What we know:
The structure holds two protein chains of two kinds. Chain A is an alpha/beta fold. Chain A has six helices and eleven strands. Chain A has helices spanning about 45-60, 75-85, 105-115, 135-145, 200-205, 245-255, and strands at about 10-15, 15-20, 40, 65-70, 90-95, 120-125, 150-155, 165-170, 175-180, 185, 210-215. In chain A, strands 9-8-7-10-6-1-4-5-11 form a nine-stranded mixed beta sheet, with helices on both faces. A two-stranded antiparallel sheet of chain A has the order 2-3. In chain A, helix 3 (about 105-115) crosses helix 4. The longest helix of chain A has 17 residues, at about 45-60. By secondary structure, chain B is of the alpha/beta class. Chain B has three domains: about 10-105, no CATH class; about 110-260, 3-Layer(aba) Sandwich (Rossmann fold), CATH 3.40.50.1860; about 275-390, 3-Layer(aba) Sandwich (Rossmann fold). In chain B, about 50% of the residues lie in helices and about 10% in strands. Chain B is built from 17 helices and nine strands. Chain B has helices spanning about 1-20, 25-30, 40-55, 60-65, 75-80, 90-100, 110-120, 160, 165-180, 195-200, 205-220, 230-240, 250-260, 290-300, 335-350, 360-370, 385-390; strands at about 140-145, 150-155, 185, 225, 250, 275, 305, 355, 380-385. In chain B, the strands form two sheets. Chain B has a five-stranded parallel beta sheet. Chain B has a four-stranded parallel beta sheet with strand order 7-6-8-9, sandwiched between helices. In chain B, strand 4 (about 225), helix 12 (about 230-240) and strand 5 form a beta-alpha-beta unit. The N and C termini of chain B lie far apart (about 60 Å). At the A-B interface, helix 5 of A face helix 7 and helix 11 of B.
Amino acid sequence: MNGGGEGVNSIVCMKQVPDTESIIRIDGEGTGIVEEGLTYVANPYDEYAVEEALRLREKFGEGKITVVTVGPQRAEEAMRYFFAMGADEGVLIRDDEPQKRDSLSVAQCLAEAIRDMEYDVIFCGKQAVDDDSGQVGAMLAELLDIPQATVVAKLEVADDKKSAVAHREIEGGEEVIEIQLPAVITAQKGLNEPRFTSLREIKRAMSKPIATREMRVPEAKTRVVSLERPPERPPGRILEGEDVDVVGELVDALRNEAKLID
Amino acid sequence: MKEEHVEENVEKELHDALVSCEKCHFCNLVCPIVDSRVTQGPFGINRAIYYGLKWNQFNDTLRDLVYSCTTCNKCVAMCKKVSRGLPLVEVFEKARELLLVEKAKGPMPEQAGVLKNMHVRGNPWGNPPHERTKWAEGLDVKFASQDNKVDILYFVGCASSYDAQGQKIAKNLAKIFKRAEVNFGILENETCSGHEARRMGEIDLFEYLSEANIGMFEEAGVCDIVTGDPHGFYSFSQEYPRMGNELRVRHYSQFLNDLMDEGKLKLSSKVNKKVTYHDPCYLGRHSEVFEEPRKLIQRIPGVTLVEMENSRADSDCCGMGGGRMWMEPPKGLVSSQAIAEKRVQQALATGAEIVLTACPFCNITLNDAVKSLEKEDSITVMDITELISMSL
């Protein structure tokens, strides 16, 4: 639903994910991960999403930014980080078994929560860095029956807020599309440089409101059958000897062992 | 309302310090970042902050100037000597705090990710926290805890935990401690000391990290700490809040001398080298530990120590302090490489084969400068622990 009025209203969909440098341990059943001991952060692509919403508001002078997430209570922490950056309020769709969901069930929850809200743009990260599915943004647009531009690296919203020009990263090039608003935009790295947030700002943002919504999370239609760790990378090899002497050996190894050059 | 009150206090504190400046400009004479512009150096930064406060103008130009200081403290020493002893470095750090916490103007853009890494992963480079103690694998180093009581807690620090050159310091120290039969250990979940976060003005992150470390010190029941990182050393001894137990903190240059005095550590092999010593700013000027490193070096059989033109309290900065390790100053301001190269030139002038230091950051920086000057054949940068280890 279009926000109308002078300002610009944005919704930012956020997922709290394990920090990419955490040790990921597969659980006993081999279909999920052990959550204990993990450090959680806001999905990095969602940071580009919220930053773009903030910049859009700066351009139009006013507007509300609402962060929506599906997840357990701990997801509030990541939401507070976005509040510290400048978002106004949050909706936490409480789900205590996030590992049992798939992209569609999450998108359905988001759609139900967002349907009655006022917005000009919905921003999502292009994918979450935990399961890398990259489907929620696209599904959300379909469920809300609004247009979408995915993997956006540059966005220009028209002054009348009725349309936007989105630069999409595509294989080997760039696609520039015009899109009607409201729409779903999924953020690619490079869309902007997210602003710095101090710890003081995070503390100050503690008073911003989070509405917790209980809803029946739809049944997942996909099921994780098994999870496996990537194979250990074989150790590197250091060629010993004087610089000039080992060049031949290196070229030979690159050509015949690694097959990186012809 | 309360927050505004805090902000006013910081601004007033800054203003009061700045108006007391006698404007003698002598600070500029010793500053490593002074080049040809009046705006540079401690006096320029001082005035920039003064006018920023006066006209309520906190822009990127002011930020660049305030963040250009290496916090080497040489200006403060000069001001104490000839004028009213204005704590310029503290003033600049306070100004950074004001810019970062209240004005959303700090840190430098490249430092933003560094501070986030310190917060989320406990180290400036964002390396995995679980790899912090990897350097100790196979070295039989124990983790200090209530069940595993140690006499000495070795606080490794970020650089010696993750950086390849820095790790040499940790490995050599572990070897030296073992040889002297010191009952020592490290923290299994050690995190960043927070020193550099404070330098960059992120005071709350400093507090967060200091609380985390103090919590671990208390939990492991340690009150005697030895470190090879002068930055951590300075923060532990001068900036950390008081613990329940009094914390004794020593840099290894002090501790190893103590071990030798007690007859627990003996150096036998001759190391016939002519060396010079670079005083790290946070060990030297900031903590006034000048003699112990020199005494330690002179206890290594065969070593000849020569001094550089500027040494002890007059020592020059390596250029990477004050958060500059993670930023490149904007065009027109003196580059960190230029500062480090100047210092290496001084070391080269002594004719020493080795320039010794006692800080992993100085080690990295000076080593890079030796390479950029293409002087690898003339001089080698080493930590004192490396030479000691050769002499065991």
